[in-house]
Amino acid sequence: MNCLQVSQNSKVIVEVLPDEKTHIGYWTIIPLFPRLNLRKISDTEKESEFSIDASHELALYIGETYPLQHKPSLFCDKPRESCASYPNKRPTLDVNEIYFAVKTCHKYHLNRVPFVQKTWGKEAKYIKFFSDIANETIPTTEVGIKNTERGHCLKTMKILKMVLEEVKETNALKTVKWVILADDDTILSVKRLQSHLSCYSPDIIVGERYGYKVLNGHGYNYLTGGGGIAFGIDTLQDIVKVCNCPQIDSPDDMVLGLCIATLNISLTHSPLFHQARPMDYPSSYLEIDYPVSFHKHWNVDPMLVYTKWLSVPSNNVFHIEL
């Protein structure tokens, strides 16, 4: 596994997404920031209260005055003095270091759950389906919270609590470093998660970051749940202890984001997690990276999504860089 290493000789702030095919990156020289009127971004009127792609918005703003330049020589395949960044090889996580908690409900036991079991669920060593009712044929674990049409906040909080208790009390789970909270229509690659999460320490939370009212300075970031959220095991104790739901069907990912903002836990954005379907993104964007996940079975063949975008041969050694 190759993770991004920023050169100690480089006077840059790096927000990069290098890729093994292109080795591209997005970076900004530190002296540029004092010259930027970042307040202008905050004062910009937006139709939506949500911020989906902060790096894109910043790049557009900077590009109006300071044209972005293509400098591939700064992003290197090995350490050199002139490099801003280069790959730093790390071993991938073992499959027994990741626990998968899948949210489902009784009406999806016969369609969505079997799909998970036939695809990425087979790659997971520790996986459990949490539902509103117990079903021994799957099996599912009853959460004790009735299902809601949206939000699922109380159900999610109960699942995190149950997982933390199980990990703490089960000797076989002492190896677990990450808990992946996924929906029953999340389509993901376990092997790519093993590779991608090896770049992080388990005291943070990783996923696709959205923002709510962040431009006016009074909002907060949160990790959207559809593409899966990777909780470092060290974060769950505080979350379970502190975070509460205003209502049973409050939006779980947004409530978690608001609570986590008070806990000094880092929410780390990874553009390899995807809240939507492949067809909802430009194909050129998806071809840059190796996706970790997609979301939704609506109007799409989930098996085709899995085989085309996420299925990884067992002997395939790839790398995903931050």
Automatic annotation (TrEMBL):
Entry keyword annotation includes S-adenosyl-L-methionine: no
Enumerate the Pfam families for this protein. Fringe
Task: List the signal peptide residues.
Answer: none
In the UniProt record, does the keyword Protein transport occur? no
Q: Where is the Fringe-like glycosyltransferase domain?
A: 93-299
Annotated GO CC locations: endomembrane system; membrane
As for membrane topology, the entry says:
Single-pass membrane protein; Single-pass type II membrane protein
Top-rank taxon, per record: Eukaryota
Q: Which keywords does UniProt give here?
A: Glycosyltransferase, Membrane, Signal-anchor, Transferase, Transmembrane, Transmembrane helix
Q: Which GO terms describe its molecular function?
A: glycosyltransferase activity
Compartments in which it is found? Endomembrane system; Membrane
Concerning its family, UniProt says: Belongs to the glycosyltransferase 31 family.
Q: From the Swiss-Prot or TrEMBL record, give the protein name.
A: Fringe-like glycosyltransferase domain-containing protein
What species was this sequence derived from?
Answer: Nezara viridula (Southern green stink bug)
